[in-house]
Design goal:
The structure is a homodimer of 528-residue chains. Chain A has 17 helices and 24 strands. With 528 residues, chain A is α/β, with parallel strands linked by helices.
């Protein structure tokens, strides 16, 4: 058979050759929507490769991007990766300290940014002498994109390097220690793309119009940029306006059929639909990931005949671990009976070896009951962190995800908790996620955080912190009754407290560290 | 990223782990239908690997199979390939001379056969001293499958070799010279599988029930065995009974949703449906390949709400070159306007670089008009033939398919002819396929063969040979009128002759060589 290295420039070449006129719609910071064809994106990407080479960038060098989802960000990805450099996506929600640490750790020579992040980059530059130049994506004058690309050709000889070369770099903030980098290779991203295109995963074809709300700086933007190019689908990029009204406007105006993002985004879109009585255009499928999706979101989209599918993954998995259109056995169930399966995190596709193990590393049965550490092996799973000497894998080559959960007989994986968030009460493990999901099914609850708090008798007991929705007057009694109906008796939190706000980390997930510190002695004091 | 070699044992492991109970239905030579789960197939495949190793088979050794589509043939594939040996699928329709040539050329140490081919193998053995043992798949006594597997374990350590190792071997009969072998690798078969799973190609998921009518000895059985395992779909294997009644029985009984095969098979199924007034159960999609699909077949299946999709490929391409669900632009057309696109051979998916070139090797425009040699490059395209020193590619790494055709602005490729079958008449190229397809749209025509015959004035002129359908009394005038309405005037054959039979080659395609010889002087004599 021929040698045909799996490199991601194949995707943009395919899109530009066979779906040349298919547009990418992109909303800029001021709110205007522009359109550029796949052919145009390829042209810009090629000019960028030349410009980078002219700047002295060599294959393997790291180039940062600090930008929301926009068409020039897409062109930057392909231009950087196509010439063999490594695209390091920077998360603007990281702290200044984290950002300067990872820029220096990666040694990013250039950074491509949205203009809105200029003040942030100005702060960082003094800490990051490695940065040689900052190029403003949405700026065409000095220091801007067009100026940087000006005069460069449209025919860069992409690829022609080993498929195991690095293509992308993404750091996880982690909860302890310094951020850790995951270096994606061309091969891992190519194979991840083929995996998620499958009908049973994201199910994408040339007829789809795909709006990734998940930012491109989150672990390959869940892979949707590559996937859309690989099939020549139209992309719709929302920029920085992620409110319900702005997203609905794009969905309707651009004919979006598929979208993907975290639950809070969908709460905002659903609230907008409810308030205005509008409908979500041609939208057919919503992929929810990044945090567990509530039953309320699934049922709300059901009313609009929009199918919600759960996706679970992490930066270290490129990032999709499980996804899944319901199996035939599940599709044969009634709508209500399907809900538990749709609330599960999904199934593993070919390319992802998935297992749960006990504390001795012994594989546990896939019975839907046994709870164990979720471990993964596969073609798009981290082997070791960037610039780390230690492998990130166990002796069998499995990566421990840090999540714990179950796998049932149909292959559905359910996350019951992050390993570190499990509440260990009197020998029983209580899932903080279960408590939160059920509390958030109450419309009066906007955000819920369950934590384990030291307890004189039970070692730990759950404590639930709730942030009320606007205008909500939900009471502790209502929540307690709701939870009592849904959870085992010993899983119902001893205390339910209403707070003004719940802290979020850089990736939009609840940050439980300060909560644990603040409420550390809560039950101890109660017991006194 | 982790090292995770792309080997085809991943497919059967995935199916057996996550879709353990999904059955493979298989019809044996006597007509009985048996069922075995993916888990059972994996078990047998593993026992086979052990048995092969016990026999002294080493990775890289060739093992032949001479069998129709059946569950033990599937287990044999995975057992042979999983342990690193190479599965050489033998086409029973080859001549004895061809078969003994390729068995010796490949040096097949063992051969797994259907019992019906025992007389054939008895004839071959004296010519093929390389064969050490013949195992009868549908025989459980001495010399049979169960006896061979007896006592062997269920836990063979598959894979663990380079993904570029050979996995399968298939010879093309060719029209001149000795048959040529194409050695598939684990990597090429893995990537081909991921390519055809895509929604825009075969679109297969766990919910599908797949009946490959295309025999497994035809170029990976179009890839459907691997594809079904990779998603855990149910397989339905028709054995040697490919008549309309038998296929319909399987479709209805086993709930087949997707099937694939050559046009003649579908004519037989459609005739059965028409005669009996029955309907094709849950069948949703029919993939047609191996020969051009007529408009009549597409329209006949339309009546049953079954979608026909064209697939084009060849042994050298693993074998799918083009396929394709209609693009959004084509779907927006009326039903009648879509027909020309559905008659086209399809689009290229990511992984297949497709182009047409003129006689100087210069790429021709994709305008739907320019006719050129069809060339392909990709991850599952032959590099050189088995045991050949000469590369099978041009300087750009493209493989010349021997087909000529056009590519239109939507990316649809249309085969106008085999390069050797093109009729060169007075400086114009006439497509023999165009003539045949249009003639076969008449229900009174069962088979049509157009050939170029020497002509004193025009160099060559088309001559059309027709075999009437049973009970048909179609006349030359009717066909001439039909063709005159559909073809350019100069493309209408000078002579239209009815014959009792039209010779077919080993792969079921019309063999034009004897026809050309017989009718060589037809127009010369006419001109005298």
């Amino acid at each position: 058979m021929q040698s045909w290295p799996l490199t991601v420039d194949r995707f943009i070449d395919h899109a530009a050759r066979w779906h040349a006129d298919v547009p990418i719609a992109s909303r800029n910071h001021e709110g205007a929507i522009t359109h550029m064809s796949w052919e145009g994106v390829r042209r810009d990407a090629s000019r960028l490769s030349h410009a980078l080479a002219a700047h002295g960038i060599m294959p393997g060098d790291r180039i940062g991007t600090l930008a929301m989802n926009g068409v020039r960000h897409v062109a930057a990805w392909f231009g950087i990766m196509g010439m063999g450099a490594i695209c390091h996506t920077l998360n603007p929600r990281f702290s200044d300290e984290q950002l300067s640490y990872i820029i220096n750790h990666a040694a990013d020579r250039l950074i491509f940014i949205d203009r809105q992040f200029l003040p942030l980059v100005d702060r960082l530059r003094s800490q990051c002498p490695v940065i040689e130049r900052v190029v403003v994506l949405d700026g065409d004058g000095g220091g801007g994109w067009e100026r940087f690309l000006n005069g460069h050709g449209e025919d860069y000889p992409w690829g022609r390097f080993d498929e195991n070369s690095g293509s992308g770099l993404c750091y996880t903030s982690g909860t302890t220690g310094a951020p850790k980098g995951v270096l994606y290779t061309h091969r891992s991203n190519y194979l991840h793309t083929m995996m998620i295109l499958q009908p049973d995963s994201f199910n994408l074809g040339a007829g789809d119009i795909v709006m990734p709300v998940v930012p491109m700086f989150h672990a390959n933007g869940w892979g949707l940029i590559f996937a859309a190019a690989a099939v020549g689908a139209k992309l719709v990029l929302p920029g920085s306006r992620l409110d319900g009204a702005s997203l609905h406007d794009l969905i309707e105006r651009e004919g979006v059929t598929v979208t993907a993002g975290v639950p809070t985004v969908w709460l905002s879109l659903l609230a907008y639909l409810k308030d205005t009585g509008k409908r979500p255009g041609k939208l057919k499928r919503v992929f929810v990931g990044g945090a567990a999706c509530s039953e309320a979101i699934i049922r709300a989209f059901d009313q609009y005949c929009v199918e919600v599918q759960h996706v679970w993954g992490m930066t270290e998995l490129s990032p999709v671990g499980t996804s899944g259109r319901p199996t035939p056995e599940v599709q044969a169930l009634s709508h209500d009976e399907q809900i538990p399966y749709r609330l599960a995190q999904g199934r593993s596709m070919i390319g992802v070896d998935l297992r749960i193990v006990d504390e001795q590393g012994k594989e546990l049965p896939r019975d839907g009951k046994s709870v164990g550490a979720i471990q993964i092996r596969g073609h798009s799973v981290v082997g070791r962190y960037y610039r780390s000497d230690a492998p990130a894998l166990d002796a069998d080559g499995f990566f421990d995800t840090g999540d714990v959960g179950t796998i049932d007989a149909h292959g559905y994986m359910r996350i019951t908790d992050r390993a570190k968030d499990v509440i260990k009460s009197g020998g029983e493990w209580i899932s903080s996620v279960d408590i939160e999901i059920n509390a958030m099914n109450h419309p009066g609850v906007e955000l819920a955080a369950a934590i384990g708090v030291l307890h004189p008798k039970w070692n730990e007991r759950p404590l639930l912190l709730l942030k009320r929705s606007v205008n909500s007057d939900v009471t502790e009694e209502e929540i307690r009754e709701l939870l009592s109906n849904r959870l085992a008796r010993w899983a119902v939190p001893d205390a339910i407290l209403f707070v003004d706000d719940i802290p979020l980390g850089a990736t939009g997930k609840i940050d439980k560290k300060p909560l644990r510190a603040r409420y550390r002695d809560y039950y101890g004091k109660q017991g006194e």
